[in-house]
UniProtKB/TrEMBL annotation:
The protein's name in its UniProt record: 4-hydroxy-tetrahydrodipicolinate reductase
The protein's annotated pathway: Amino-acid biosynthesis; L-lysine biosynthesis via DAP pathway; (S)-tetrahydrodipicolinate from L-aspartate: step 4/4
Species of origin: Candidatus Ghiorseimicrobium undicola
Gene Ontology CC annotations of this record: cytosol
Function of the molecule: Catalyzes the conversion of 4-hydroxy-tetrahydrodipicolinate (HTPA) to tetrahydrodipicolinate.
GO annotation (BP), single: lysine biosynthetic process via diaminopimelate
Keyword set includes NAD: yes
Alphabetized InterPro entries for the sequence: DapB_C, DapB_N, DHDPR_bac, NAD(P)-bd_dom_sf
Catalytic activity: (S)-2,3,4,5-tetrahydrodipicolinate + NAD(+) + H2O = (2S,4S)-4-hydroxy-2,3,4,5-tetrahydrodipicolinate + NADH + H(+); (S)-2,3,4,5-tetrahydrodipicolinate + NADP(+) + H2O = (2S,4S)-4-hydroxy-2,3,4,5-tetrahydrodipicolinate + NADPH + H(+)
Cited Gene3D superfamilies: Dihydrodipicolinate Reductase, domain 2, NAD(P)-binding Rossmann-like Domain
Compartments, record wording: Cytoplasm
Amino acid sequence: MIKLAVSGACGKMGKRIIALAQQDSDFKLVCALEHSAHLELGTSICAGINVAADNEEIKNCDVLIEFSSPQATISHLEQAIKFGKKVVIGTTGLLDEEKIKIEKAAEKIAVVFSPNMSIGVNLFFDIIKRLSSKISGNYDIKITEAHHVHKKDAPSGTAKRISEIIENSGKKVSDVKSIREDEIIGDHCVIFSSSVDTITLTHSAKTRDIFAAGALVAAKWVIDKRNGFYAMDDVLGL
């Protein structure tokens, strides 16, 4: 059984990760972390587990799943290194210097880092990678992403990753449009347009469970891995 810690435990993602983990006999929740001013601090999140702000509790887990703020993620990462714990990071809005810290941490512990833990989205990434490498340079490429009004970062981490994939193939993205509207879970559209045709690729998330389930798949995968920096394509063998 994998002893699990979840950071950002009272957020929308954290709650779904905990709910799905409780339905999976491979997991036992041992730690639920939130920031020290959170209104739910000290309350019960499930049987025997109260929401805590003490980072030292990370020592009780096998794997830490991070869906918190960039600052909290880096702080918790330091504790994970201290106690030799595996980490799965789905936090978005990270600065380049924070990403470098994550890569450095992976020299000491096993880290899975992805801006989107959804299995479907990572297959979407793979399709975009294949298409971008095959098409000519005559295509104008645009990305549109849409999320709920509460999302703080724009463009989304997923849109940034799509841009990286396309640019790594030697192509350029001419425009990235971000929409914040209603309670949209997450929609991403990539349009490849030329003078003779248009290719449109779209992924729409219907529930946050796709991200939560992917994070738990990553937690199971990383449990027996050596120190290193891994992505979801490693987890999925893409």
